[in-house]
Write a structure and sequence with these properties.
Helix content is 48%, strand content 4%. It has one domain (9-39, 56-268). The protein has a 4-stranded antiparallel β-sheet with strand order 1-2-3-4. The two termini are 15 Å apart. A hairpin with a 6-residue loop joins strand 3 and strand 4 (225-226). It is mainly alpha-helical and 269 residues long.
Length: 269
């Protein structure tokens, strides 16, 4: 760990958490084919964002990752270094499209904390909205279903995640962990470890069901909801993994399994 780099932002938040905060299921026309550089499109209708909600205390907090070798910047002065490290991991074009310009670590921590909940605090998300809008289609038996075109919206970003080096991600997580922990404490968890919340978030996403059949929707108001009440009651993170399609979700889950093994090994060693 000899360079000031980064993690949970890079993949667990940036590539995964980013996907999972794009939760608005609004009808709209299919997006254009995604070019190499994409201009982010803001949602047509904004929604009020709920504040972060406190979680129950973790019963057995994991050990802290090892302290960084090199000095870290102050949390409130960390954005330039975090962004530079993200560019080194993903490239400038992707970072420009995927990463908010300010309060990167704080917003990333909020995103991780919110993913296993019912809702995401959108104004604290670590990434801009996914370009385009949610796409539904007419299925059999007069049902509305999630369109395969909607699954395709996520595929380029899933490919970015899959291509990222898992070992480097784990090393970067250890490097920036003290700042992640500080932001987590500032969020309202003075006696808990962010590492425990990361593991809980990964486990929650891995528990998302894998669905082959068309995913039926209902639209009681502006937003679509899952017709199956059991799916609708799932966490915000799980519902969006379902929404990106089985193939994309499987790729994300495999990356999460790889990362969990690496950061758990570092934790125990």
């Amino acid at each position: 760990m000899n360079r000031a780099s980064w993690i949970l932002l890079g993949v667990l938040v940036l590539a995964v958490g980013g996907f999972l905060t794009w939760r608005a299921m609004r009808a709209g026309p299919p997006p254009p084919v995604m070019p190499a550089a994409i201009e982010s499109v803001s949602p047509a209708v904004s929604e009020p964002s709920p504040p972060p909600v406190l979680m129950p205390e973790v019963t057995s907090p994991p050990m802290l990752p090892a302290a960084p070798v090199e000095p870290l910047p102050a949390l409130d002065e960390s954005d330039p270094e975090v962004r530079a490290a993200a560019v080194g991991l993903l490239g400038a074009d992707y970072v420009d499209q995927l990463l908010v310009p300010a309060d990167i670590i704080r917003k990333s921590v909020v995103t991780v904390d919110n993913l296993p909940r019912d809702k995401i605090a959108l104004r604290f998300r670590a990434v801009p909205p996914l370009p385009g809008r949610f796409i539904a289609a007419e299925g059999g038996d007069d049902w509305t279903v999630i369109s395969a075109e909607n699954f395709a919206r996520y595929t380029p970003w899933v490919n970015v995640l899959v291509a990222a080096d898992s070992t480097l991600i784990a090393d970067l997580y250890l490097r920036f962990y003290p700042l992640l922990q500080q932001a987590y404490q500032d969020l309202g968890y003075p006696d808990q470890q962010f590492h425990g919340r990361v593991i809980a978030m990964i486990d929650d996403l891995l528990a998302a069901p894998e669905i082959d059949a068309p995913i039926r929707l209902v639209r009681p108001h502006v937003l679509y909801h899952y017709a199956d009440p059991e799916l609708e009651e799932r966490s915000a993170g799980q519902k969006t993994l379902i929404r990106m399609g089985r193939k994309n979700a499987a790729a994300v889950k495999q990356k999460l399994r790889d990362i969990k093994i690496l950061i758990s090994a570092a934790d125990s060693g």
